[in-house]
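re: that complex we talked abt at group meeting.

here r the seqs, copy pasted straight from the sheet so there may be weird spacing, ignore it
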Amino acid sequence: MAKLLTGNELLRGDVLWWTGAGWSLTIDAAVAVEDGEALLAREAVSEAVSDLALIDAERMDGRWRPVKVRERIRAYGPTVRDDLAIAGQDWR
Amino acid sequence: MYQYDEIDQALVDARVDEYRDQLSRRLAGALDEDHFKPLRLKNGLYLQLHAYMLRVAIPYGTLSGAQMRMLGHVARKYDRGYGHFTTRQNIQYNWIRLEESADLLASLATVEMHAIQTSGNCIRNISSDQYAGAAADEVDDPRPWAELLRQWSSFHPEFSYLPRKFKICVIGSETDRAAMKLHDIGLQLVRRDGELGFRVFVGGGMGRTPFVAPVIRDFLPTAEFLSYCEAILRVYNRYGRRDNIYKARIKILVHELGAAEFTRQVEAEHAHVKTLGIDAPEAEIERIRGFFAAPAFEVLGEDYPPPAPPVSTSREGGEFELWVARQVAVHKVPGYRIVNISLKPVGQIPGDASAGQMEAIAELAERFSFDEVRVTHAQNLVLPHVKASDLPAVWAKLVEIGLADANLDLASDVIACPGLDYCTLANARSIPVAQRIAALLQPKEAELGELKVKVSGCINGCGHHHAGHIGVLGVDRKGTENYQLLLGGSGAEDTSLAQILGPGFDETGIVNAVGKLTETYLSVRTDGERFLDTYRRVGAAPFKAAVYGEPVYG
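got the structure back, here u go
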């Protein structure tokens, strides 16, 4: 099971994903992290991203899919407002 | 309505300035998140699943037109065009940008609003009856007392770090439209030998460990109102548990001590506290009462036929007549009506309103309801003082903005918390379940009559599942959503706690199960018997047998 590093951007609260070189708004840009706890501790120092967490995800059809429904909804947006969700992602 | 004096305004303005400074230091890197988080939470700003969420206090659920218009403005300028009215009679915005949050609070302050004490272990927004000042069955208006509590509890230094959050409700009728007995303190205005006083309930609540509050004082003279509340809070602050967050609410203290011993301790504390001179002088009570004087009602006859009881079983007549029958309640003044606005159009999100809808309702309040609108704990809105002859114009506008549904207290009037679609605490989605149940039951809701369905996405119970005739509780089962089914709850004057019926279901399963419950009800009820009363009469057995058999809906 791969681990992805995620958090919320300070100014707007947007969900962010660690890309290996920085942060992205899309989970598709995320990379699996090896030494996640160390990375999390290092990124926490910058204070630019809040609520850092490592989540479980798996590859499916060439894309990342968080294992827990909570993390899928967090990644893809509310399931009840298509206009506010990230297009082309299935939370199910 | 109450209007801020210069002290009220200065307090709120000072808090905005203080927060603006804190925010600027956070953005400049001078404050880290560990230090800033409790400061933003003190101003109602949470970090939720997708973004920051702001909870704005609506004292006792009462708004002016200007305030409602401001809520629409906030939705349009600072959020994504909508807001969510909550079961605490407040409003939440789901997409706030931290960098704009101080400006947002400054905007709210211009219409005497804020987000203070909407988070944390303090006394939260006071809740009340949405029909206050309009209800025909009212002993007295609860709003002056709710306002007095608001002033007493705002920045109360002794009660800013309680063991846990604290919720107080004041009502003025035997009919309970505010789930009063499910609050930490419930206060019911009563008269005894002509004298006005309060029946005092303490230790109610929902959440992980639900309790119906017991009475600890059958008659409290109004002159001792604040000192008695202070005594209750002092006993709680001293003995409420701080070692275990799940046992920290006052309901646990009352339960563990027993109501009699808790009462004894409060009375002993009160004997001391009432000598301290903290009760409001009569002149101050009268000053506050003056803000809630009846508006300039015209002297009218009954120029519109009195509405039928809110739960009509008839679909005869036109849509307007149906809307009047279901959404319009009797007013204490002849010729006036209380209008309930449904925020539960089938297919929509319970409690959500767009900026345009809020602005339109603000205009309705100003034109037709003496500049007042109320928020209900069932996530609907109320225009409290509408002239009967204005009902067609009000209805026409509601049709125009998509809020003319006629389903008050019926099966599609489902309460739902934000659930896992927005909330970090949630274990399961509640909104889609509420939507599917509403869609399933709406076609036969006239036949079903009064049926209160309430859906929570976690054990904290913001969707009031324990008070539902049918309650649904979303839980996490190994990373997937699972829904427990509860029956027999009520948040009304016949308060009771819903009980779990049996094993949980997936999303489709819970919707099917609710469908089977209603089929069973229709098959065993007596004439005119509500769902809740049928359940109380026949017990869980026939419902249990039906639910755990074959599905009646595909």
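couple things i noticed - The helical segments of chain A are 36-46, 69-76. The mean pLDDT of chain A is 92.
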